[in-house]
Write a structure and sequence with these properties.
This protein is of the alpha+beta class. The chain is built from 17 helices and 34 strands. Helix 1 links the parallel strand 1 and strand 2. The relative contact order is 0.08.
Length: 600
Amino acid sequence: MFEKVLVANRGEIAIRIIRALEELGIASVAVYSEIDRDALHVRRADEAYLLGGPTAAESYLNVERLLEVVAQSGAQAVHPGYGFLAENAPFARACEEAGVVFIGPPASAIEAMGSKTRAREIMKAAGVPIVPGTTEPVATVEDARRIIDAEIGYPVAIKAAGGGGGKGFRVAMDESELEKAFEGAAREGEKFFSDATVYLERYLPDPRHVEVQVLADRHGNVIHLGERDCSIQRRHQKLIEESPAPVVDAVEGMRERIGRIATDAARAVDYVGAGTIEGLWQDGEYYFLEMNTRVQVEHCVTEMVTGVDIVKEGIRAAAGEPLSVRQEDVALRGHAIECRINAEDASKNFAPAPGRIGAYKEPSGPGVRVDSGIGPGGEVSPMYDPMVAKLIVWDTDREQATRRMLRALGEYEIEGLKTLIPFHRAILASEQWARGETCRDLIEDRRWLKTLAFDPAPAAGDDEPAETVEQAYTVEVSGKRFDVKVIGPPFAGGAPAAAPAVNGRRPARSTRSRSGSSGGAGGDTLASPMQGNVFKVLVEPGQTVEEGALVAIIEAMKMENEITAHKSGVIAELPIKVGDAVASGATLAVIKDPEPAAGD
């Protein structure tokens, strides 16, 4: 076993790995960027080394500097966590060439599964069912149009060959949307994965996203730990995960079937360590989607229902030890749910909402786990992803786990930030969640999302308490009904707050995240709802636009955010250009009412 391991990551996953190393008796080495000097993972590790400037390219993606720190610290292995360099085959190979163990699969497996087109070829050859589409890259829009017309049809998904995490994924519902979708997928592929090639898949309109956790060692042992349902997503990025998957539970023999698909896929690339086979389920059919050659953000729900420490197993496998569990020993017990607590404003179409945290209190109690990488006074930087923490609960079945999660969300207090806590509470109290649906209709309904906008809370010490409203209704979960009472501040639009508390009351202050203004539109001014960089400007001064027309794209916290016109009119002022840094509330455009025609 290793004596010292460098953790090449930050935030909650870095702390999760450090905890596993502590339990294995292994010294930990943290790395950090300039703006992460005071981060929790830096203070928690046995040693910590500065990588460089605030951007990922200067720090967490700086392979040369990381290998210098490995040599300086004497670490024998590197754990990449997820994101950054976790699925970077050249980094894995560089570690191997430097005599350092990369805690993950061999570079060859990362390469094979990192290219989605190559992965589809391998899976097809191995007899694993894949979503109908191309296994070769598609070079041009014209080529795509020809293939779609002849083989696939609309709607169609255009996907970056090196994509993942929702990036490089666009959908064309018909031919009129093809060029824009093709361009967007290729652009994101180049930007995030240095690979602009794309391929095509039949777009499944409302599939369940079902993935299987696998573990493999260097002794030929490959097992699966059951499945997770990750269907609650926005912009093809996961928000809520659960295990086991309700749809799999309902079909006899299905867990064993998709488990075999997953282990066959892992064996096909000589996999080692922790990985995930992602798939889509629709109309009783299960299709291979992609393989994530790393530990997943949502690994926690599988740990809760199986009792297997996935991070430890990955470390042991990298050290050459056999897995500590056999397939016949794996049993799923109870039900677990995870909510990603991101610094995002759901009422503004999930706009990133970075900022500094004030008071901070995590929920606790039976069956509650919080994996976080931040605390009171910490900052969610626009330089990185918007995750604050992961809230995970376990209970005996889906109904009880849902009620426990509602209780835990109600206890979570985060001052100074807009977070997804109101969104999670509303989704988990919905009839769609109770029926085990994807909730896609709610998540894509911007009118519904706008009802999740809490009015700003008064600052600490204010004399007047926040106004509260109360609404009682009934929620059905897993075929059973229970009463829900909503107590909280009114929404911006005057509707009652969808922040349910199960069978009880709680003070208004514990029912929401707090923040100040996050931008928006007032009068003629279209203001930026977030801090970020102008990635694209799609209008010109003097141009006439309709309400809802795309004006600009702002890149913030690794996401492209479309900014649309708040009213119809003429672009009178356009003080932005591509590459500009903009603050939350900054003017992006001024849209004036058109001048009346002569004689009107």
